[in-house]
Write a structure and sequence with these properties.
Blueprint lengths: L6 E5 L11 H11 L3 E6 L2 H13 L4 E5 L5 H15 L4 E4 L17 H29 L2 E6 L11 H21 L4 E6 L7 H11 L3 H10 L10 H7 L1
Helix pairs in contact: 1-2, 1-8, 3-4, 4-5
């Protein structure tokens, strides 16, 4: 078990209802299978607890924690709780991001309110999570930061805020890798493509009023590796 005795804080461990599994929940379960002790963080306590129950069924020690990534104090409280309960933080995994749900739009149509909210969720939350995890990692002189960015940072994407924040997240991760190498801390960003996840398909279907099957088929047709529309398990395996 590669993560035996390691402590992971997974921000975005819950997920919206859907037919497949999301990145955060899949990663939590994969970490559980590898022996990690986990703080499963989500803005909805019930969804965090659902994931924690599944992780405990895998034999892991996993505790749900409610935090809103747009509120710095709740992220601090999450890192404090992980340290209080486990005595260290070995892995910080930030798996939070919104686009359509935050009313993202093309640059000529985006509102100030939507832009600020999406930035707060996708980027500022990642910065604030690191703000409170890094001192713990630096003191123990080891740690791993894992950020979920998106291939949309480089590829064609119609909405301005998601693309901009996911590109910024790559730069931020690179900065943390360089600035924290002397402490034995690594930082990496994963860039998933078009995913068949509750956020990518089911939530999009709900927001647009279109059938899930239609949206999933459209996205799958754009995937270069035909016949493989990735789910959260693929991201978890990549980690």
């Amino acid at each position: 078990m590669r993560l035996k005795d390691k402590v992971a804080v997974i921000v975005g461990a819950g997920q919206n209802p859907g037919e497949t599994i999301g990145n955060g929940r899949a990663t939590t379960l994969r970490f559980a299978q590898e022996g990690a002790r986990i703080l499963a963080v989500d803005r909805r306590a019930d969804l965090a607890e659902e994931t924690a129950e599944l992780a405990r069924a895998e034999g892991a020690e996993c505790v749900a924690f409610e935090a809103d990534v747009t509120r710095e104090a709740t992220l601090k409280a999450g890192m404090d709780e992980a340290y209080r309960r486990f005595g260290r933080i070995d892995i910080l995994h930030y798996n939070v991001g919104i686009s359509l749900e935050g009313k993202d739009a093309p640059v000529t149509e985006i509102t100030e309110e939507a832009f600020d909210h999406i930035c707060a969720v996708n980027l500022r939350g990642a910065v604030m999570a690191c703000k409170y995890a890094l001192p713990i990692m630096r003191a123990q002189r080891s740690g791993v930061i894992l950020m979920i960015s998106s291939i949309s940072a480089f590829e064609i994407y119609p909405f301005v805020t998601y693309k901009a924040t996911k590109a910024a997240l790559i730069a931020f991760t690179q900065q943390q890798a360089i600035n924290n190498a002397e402490y034995g801390i690594r930082a990496n960003a994963i860039l998933p493509g078009l995913m068949d996840t509750p956020m990518g398909v089911d939530r999009r279907a709900q927001l647009t009023g279109r059938p899930r099957t239609e949206i999933a088929a459209e996205r799958a047709a754009r995937v270069p590796l035909k016949g493989h529309h990735a789910t959260g398990w693929d991201v978890a395996r990549a980690i």
